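Human: Here is a favour to ask of a fellow structure person. Comparing notes only helps if you start from a blank page. Give me a protein, with the fold worked out from its sequence. Please set it down just below, with no commentary around it:

Assistant:
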Amino acid sequence: MEKFIVRGEVRLNGNIRVSGAKNAILPIMAATLLCSGISVIHDIPYLRDIKVMQDILSLLGAKITRENNTLIIDTTNIQEVEIPEHLMREMRASVFLMGPLLGKFRKVRLSYPGGCAIGPRPIDLHIKALEKIGAQVEEKFGFIEARADCLTGGEINFDYPSVGATENAMMASVLASGSTIIRNAAREPEISDLQTFLNKMGAQIVGAGTDTIIINGIKKLIPVEHTVMSDRIQAGTFLVAAAMTHGDLIIENILSEHLFSVIDKLKDIGAQINIGRNCLRIKAGDLRGVDLKTLPYPGFPTDLQAPLLSLLTIATGTSIITETIFENRFKHVNELIRMGAKIKVEGRTAIIRGVPKLTGAIVAATDLRAGGALVLAALAAEGISEIENVYHIDRGYERLEEKLQSLGANISRHKMD
């Protein structure tokens, strides 16, 4: 168990490069199971969730080699279709393996996935989607078993645009016979990156990035080489960090079109943002309160709600945040209150009254994005803060303390007592 110790009130300045997107990498790693052979994936950060996915693929029979930020995945000898329960419980994204294992081997067995405790994330949408293309799914003794003598294209109409269910449906359908239409599909950029990867493998998919995706099934896919998209959530976190510390940052390897809802909101708060080619420059101004609501893409992302809430604790006036995606995504509020924030939560709404300054305290990360938010708060706070349970942060932010140190932050990692 480790913690961060942060001495606050240091302005962040300099250049920072955003790494590959965790939320794109995990389904792409799962998609390598759809073919036999060696796939090469570039710009892979060192993250706990990626290591868990590597462990799962290895136990299924894959041979994985890492060369710096490149993963070489050989799926030639995949034989297992059952995912160990202890690894399923470590990471929500392990559910992505349902689609490719069913698509390739026509069977899969797994337990219910774990991950951050930010509210119920039922997998019924995943199951219903697989059933629409011919899978028989049984849930018993805490396990899910799916089988199919054959998979046949069909129409999948989601009640809610779930990212994971959309990606699972895509991966299960590429080797089905006939055409599959996914309606009310999620539109996140990571889905478009998955489509690019699958189409390189030989799949025939159109529509990712819109609410209707069409997959024409084929008989065989081939291994490929691919560089994943940049991490828009990491980029958004650094944008908020610059604003919160009254800093001046140039953020590289960033696609601004993926972040327009965030950029617009930060401008409303008072930040100055200039968009360049694959980069952004942000300079902080006087911070003022705003209202926002999290929504599926292209709305404001739920994964950046916690960091922005931290920023609003020191903005002038009153702000209101409404969380529409996950019901337990305000767990960081009590920790921010320990630092002097004035926040009241009513159901899925947080009311924030800005204070002139936060003060250092001992706090604990309750999940990945909450942990990131607490680091930002500590950077801006007066005095010294300790942030415990940083393993949550390591799930999605690569060597966060080192990147912040390169920008001038006074932050270090220590063993917990």
